[in-house]
Amino acid sequence: MKRHILIALVAAIASAFGIHTQAQRMDRNKDIDVRQLQKIQMAQVYISQLYVDSLSLEKVTEDAIRGMISKLDPHTSYSDPEETNKLNEPLRGNFGGIGVQFNMLDDSLIVIATTPKGPCEKAGILAGDRIISVNGETIAGVKMSRDSIMKKLRGPEGTLAKLQIVRHGAKKPLRFNIVRDQIPMPTLDAYYMLTPTIGYIHLDRFGATSAKELREAIKNLQKQGMQDLIFDLEVNGGGYLEAAIDIANEFLQPGDLIVFTEGRAQPRKNFYARGGGHFREGRLVILVDEFSASASEIVSGAVQDHDRGIIVGRRSFGKGLVQQPINLPDG
Question: Which of 90, 115, 135 finishes a domain?
Fold first, then answer.
């Protein structure tokens, strides 16, 4: 596995206003052609003013950005505010919601479990309850998609979700006013002892809370007698670079090179183990498969390079790419 990381940067027009001032500042960079930026701006203005039908300037801008990016590599992409939130949610480690796990059965939402100490558990909602409406809108028997239902259940912390629930044994629907809260979304989904001395940890993705979750799991297993560890990164498509560096640090010695990044317009930057890792001794096996990518490959590659452990499984995905998010003004 190569640890040479290329950085792909996406440059986009943030607004049609003030573009000349911005372009003049960027003109110091030989890669920026001010005339081409003006050309895009003029096209947008003429289309919005002269086209036979009325148009949404927002949609024209979105389509222009998506059109530019569609000609680039498969990993460069644009996401609107809603898509951005959906992409970031699994990596942040929490989301605003009511705290239930559910399944859809016969167009009806059935509560499978409530989040411990979450809003629904505190309100008294039970496994087996059927949620039939949210804030007065019926969600049962209307063939609503799972994503649409999740949108209605989730929301900013502190907002109110008025639920109507059918409960087995209750003569009429029950009503609950649920105040949404931050719901934890763990990235580490399993850890336990395989034998009296061998521990097992599976990490689903590399998110903002992953390193903390891993440290807690390691310390818990060590209290149970763990001496050796199987760290499972199968079907782990990656996540935050910082999380990969922090997790690799748990296994390596101070000063060990974890990874370096280097791009066409970016100088090389090295990332080293800081020390203080909780599992720098003991046998280590990392499991990978063809879906282990990006951050998973950084961690397993660093462990392999420093002979810290053994990599077992299938040839990994091969994504030696660090993607940098560029935040636009509207989210």
Answer: 90
